[in-house]
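User: Hi! I'm working on a homework problem where we have to compare a predicted structure to a textbook description. Could you give me the structure for the chain below?
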Amino acid sequence: MEFDANAALAETELAEAVDESVDNDDIDSEQVDEYDDELAEEVLMIDNVMLATLSAIEVITEKPLLEQAIVELDELIALIEVDMQGFNCDVEKRDQLLYLFYQQLGFAGDWRKWLELDSVLLHKVISSRNGVPLSLGTVFMYFAEHFEVEVKGILFPGQFVLRFGGEKNATYVDPADGQILTQHKLQVLLRGIEGNHALLTDDDLLEANNEMHYLRLLQVLKAALIRDEHFSYALRCIDLILELEPDEPYEIRDRGFLLQQLDCKKLASEDFAYFIEQCPDDPITRVLTAQLEELAVANDTIH
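Assistant: Happy to help. Predicted structure tokens:
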């Protein structure tokens, strides 16, 4: 099961902030609109989820890690390169890669470590070969692309799932251990998330494109960062999410919670006001409305 970002945020007391600004006074509004449109088209094109996410982690942590992670990936691929040769049938290639990835290389998911940040950070997962289903599935898909094994990522409720084959003849696999998930097992997983009356539908098995996959990785990373009290990193993570979904009210709300705890009251008020306008029927709107009244009489702390 992946992290719940909202629950993690609610449980955490925040303590530090990152406040960066860009002066655009010399750019007229038409130029800004044109630039925003071009930027939106550019950031939405993610060719490789693994590389995009590692680059994002570099930005968030301000640590050069992409190059070393790629070196480690290449070394792992080299270890099984010979054993992947000679398989022409799609099913045989799939089964061989699953065996080599989980048995020979030893990638695995330990549910006792699923709340640990190192199980989410891809460069750590590559080194330790342990992670949450989402991070393990991401690494596996990188291997699958190299060896031309067709696989898709499925944003199953509460967990990432791998799908081999088309929708009508699909084989689903748990990225935590490489085991096949039957329809019955998928149903059990779903009920564990949504309750005993939940019924498995096609909507629960939607294929994730690169952008959706990347966003899910950032959202899970955000929750893990908050849980481990890396608050400045969490703010940078939200900034990256908003580059892809600039008007997403729930991300803006979460940013507001962070900013409020950091005593950036004016900025927090703006985020809360936006959420209230966009989601007037959300249960938390009443709470945020009351907080807006309190924030209105407070001065924003300068950082």
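For your comparison, note the following. Confidence is low (pLDDT under 50) at residues 1-43. Strands lie at 152-156, 159-164, 171-173, 180-181. Good luck with the assignment!
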